[in-house]
Amino acid sequence: MDWFPLWLSLKVAVLSTAVAVVVGLWLAYLLANRQFRGKEILDAAVTLPLVLPPTVLGYYLLVVIGRNSGFGKAWEWVTGAPLVFTWKAAVIAAVLHSLPLLVKSARAALESVDHSYERAARTLGATEWRVFQKVTLPLAARSILAATVLAFARALGDFGVTIMVAGNIPGRTQTVAVAIYDAVEGGDGATARTLVLVISAIALSILALANYLNPPAAGRRAG
Amino acid sequence: MIEARIRKSYPQRSDAAGFELDVELKAAAGVTVLFGPSGAGKTLTLDAIAGFVRPDEGRILLDDAILFDGATGVHLPPQQRQCGYVFQNYALFPHMTLRQNLEFAAERRPRLERHRRVNDLIEKFRLADVAGRRPHEVSGGQKQRCSIARALVGAPRILLLDEPAQGLDAPLKADFYQVLKQVRSDFATPIVLVTHDLEECFALGDQMIVVRSGSVVQAGTPQQILDKPASIETAKLLGAHNLIPCEIRGLDPGRNTSKLRVGDFDVTGPYLPGHLIGDRVSLCVRPEALSAKPRNGKPGANQIPAELQKVQERPQFLRLDFSAGDAVGMLTVELPRREYEAFGGSDVREWVIEFPRQAMSVL
Known about the structure:
The complex is a heterodimer of chains A (223) and B (363). Chain A has helices at 4-33, 39-51, 54-65, 70-79, 87-112, 115-123, 128-156, 160-165, 176-185, 189-213. Chain A is mainly alpha-helical and 223 residues long. Chain B contains nine helices and 21 strands. Chain B has helices at residues 42-50, 98-106, 111-124, 140-153, 170-186, 198-204, 222-227, 232-238, 337-342; strands spanning 2-10, 19-27, 31-35, 57-62, 65-69, 74-75, 83-86, 158-162, 191-195, 207-212, 215-220, 242-252, 257-262, 265-270, 280-285, 291-294, 303-313, 318-323, 330-335, 350-354, 361-362. A six-stranded mixed beta sheet of chain B has the order 7-8-9-3-10-11, sandwiched between helices. Chain B has a five-stranded antiparallel beta sheet with strand order 2-1-4-5-6, covered by helices on one side. In chain B, helix 2 packs across helix 3. The longest helix of chain B is centred in the middle third of the chain and has 17 residues, at 170-186. Chain B starts with a strand and ends with a strand. The mean pLDDT of chain B is 88. The chains are: A mainly alpha (223), B alpha+beta (363). Chain A binds chain B through residues 114, 116-117, 119-127, 130, 134-135, 138-139, 223, and chain B through 50-52, 77-79, 81, 83-85, 87-89, 91, 93-95, 104-105, 107-108, 150-151, 153-154, 156.
């Protein structure tokens, strides 16, 4: 039994979640607090990956990071190796896959913080960054953590985008989702069953953790 | 000293009625009370001063600083306005202890001074025992004191309070009045307080500004306003007056009197400059200024007969509701309990109500 896919999936999920949290929080903050032109378009663009078929996302991603794209060439020039069909491409795929969920939940969490706390902090002279860091974020922390956990689960389960941009190279880019597909195609029922059970167990625990952090009956206010 | 002229309009939408705020106010040292019913625009005015809301036009001056000027586009962010704000729900940060709440507010002050300032205020506002607790672990009164202390940490140039005593019970209210009076004498900060509680206006207000549907209808000391409401609306807002329809029958500038027809009776009132004979006006008298006694034959001068309808017990007096015929309507009189009992109390059916000339005003 080869456990590499599981290990790779976890690594990809951890790294992509880290990236998604930083980018997602920033986007969520912009959407929750700022008024600017094109806000609705940004909101729609962030949500798009939730509704588009994974193959479409994969195609876009190939256009952006492929070996013939500007970004792909720049990457190759700097690092000496192409980006597509490596585990790093799988990380980018997972970020794209999990970001919408994170932005949506983080925005809701930030917006659920009673505005009078933020207003109070402002009258006390705190800069916007300080208000966010010391008041908004701690008060929304639980919900954001729950959103992060969900984003991790989603990153763990990506199949379509990953197979388009990272491929299916056993021992290099084969994540659990891809490995299961591969095993079923190849008639290896035992491997498929094991991976299915393991990944289901992980997902179930993650969802339980998310629910514990942020009870679904969200009548409760943060703090 | 704050001087503000604020205009802001909210267009009518399918989910909200339109609203027009157009107020002009001035508040010097001491406590200025913004009084008015819910939805009058009191909190909106406060928010415009604090910088949460940008007025459409106008000008807000705090001491020598321009906080907002519609003509030149100046609109300072709340951080730069030096306005202390006490929120209706206190808005103490729930994830910090009371001390941390004050320390958060002290971050702008010089490093060496912070600790002493925070300690001073904790001491002054009697929070030493609970300074290490979170807001949800302390009483309502402590929360309120802490939120006032927090607003004062940065030595603001003005202190704004939004319905601070709402929902407090009587002893806590008394305690709050005490605290605010102390703030008023210990700190030179002018205070602007929003309330719809008349009792609070009298307990705290040096100045009172009556706001109704987005505009200022009267300003003055609370006593002046209660004695002479500027309009029927103000009198109704104060909720403490008899408003009796009457007709002016005579005006005598020589004796400084007027003759007013109240129902089927004549009452001598104060001279009414600017009115004409035949004008229909409302006579405005406070319940404690009227007196009632059992009817004894024909009603005398300035007396009209009435029937007692209802007696309400109050701590210091009785509140008696009389009906004085269709043309006059109901009259409310406040009478000391002992006086009422000496008259024979509820055994007396027929009464007369006496109108003292000095206490009447006409709207």
